[in-house]
Amino acid sequence: MELAELSGEPPKLSVAVVTELGKKGMRPEDPVLVRIFKQESELELWKADASGRYKLFKTYPMCRWSGKLGPKTKEGDRQAPEGFYHVSASMLNPKSQYYVSFNLGYPNRLEAALGYSGEALMVHGACSSSGCYAMTDQGVGEIYAIVQKALQSGQDRFQVQAYPFRMTAENFGKHRSDPNMSFWLTLKEGYDYFDLSKRQPKVAACDRRYVFNREFDGGDPRNPLTACPPAKSIASADLQALVAAERGKVEAALSVEKSTPALAYVDGGMHSSFRTLLKKQGASKLAEDISIIKYPVSRPEAALVDPYSGRSAVISEPSND
User: Fold this and answer.
1) Does 103 reside within a domain?
2) Residue 47 domain-assigned?
3) Which residues does the UniProt record annotate as the domain L,D-TPase catalytic (predicted)?
């Protein structure tokens, strides 16, 4: 994995990014949408065309996230959030201590109503996390420039969908014993509405959960804790049938009696490409290569553990980070 040269200048759309957008039929000013996957340690950036359908622009490897799979519920739990968020221009921070960042807006209306606590949960640079998603300075600089341009060009806010893993039936089967399963099944519906239609799902909250692509009598529910009022779907019958079919695949996977290995989460995760660099060159050199201020890699020994194999690697230099 080759890392681009660091720059202390404010992020801007490079000629290379504009060219890459053009090759994919995208414009810098087109609306954006972000998806985040913890288990895979990846962030996807999508761009919408004139019809409102989104196409994937790029998948970025994530250097660090903390905690384990599951939603964030309280201050200090080191959990990176899972759910649906909306980011406006005022939530972009060009003077972050981690180069630049944008605030996810945790807790959102549903999370606040449920009593969840925490603040300043970000997507930012460097490779350090205590509840945030750290993308390296190079990665967040490119992402920041793209989303900033979209917001400056008329997009009111962009949606961020944060998931524990890519929401396939196979992955649900692997996590069948997880106590967060009912919450993840709710996220799965929103995931499928986007994945199958490539259109941003409308998100509301009632009955203590997210609801998607619903039009309610009298407007969206004001209290996320009360029962959902009468509503009709704004999705086509064909799309609803596809979403139902996906739910059936997950239910079938969950019904299979099969033992699942326990995950060895020491603290969060790291994309395999960065784990390779960390193992090869050590925490100090990695921090130097991906952070303007050389911000230390958070808990590097924990980052070397592959949660899905239960194995850890040996770092090439001693570190007190």
Assistant:
1) yes
2) yes
3) 32-163
pTM: 0.94
**Does residue 39 form part of some domain?**
yes
Is 46 strand, coil or helix? strand
**Domain for residue 104, yes or no?**
yes
The DSSP bridge partners found for residue 46 are 33, 56
Catalytic residue among 63, 86, 127, 132: 132
Tell me which residue range forms the domain holding 81.
Answer: 15-166
Whether 124 is catalytic: yes
**How does 145-174 read in b/e, with b if 16+ C-beta sit within 10 Å?**
bbbbbbbeeebebbbbbbbbbebbbebbbb
- Splitting the chain (321 residues) into consecutive groups of 10 residues, what average pLDDT does each group show? 80 96 97 97 96 97 96 96 98 96 98 97 97 98 98 98 97 94 98 98 98 95 96 97 98 86 76 96 97 96 78 44 37
Active site residue 206: no
CATH number of the domain that residue 91 is part of: 2.40.440.10
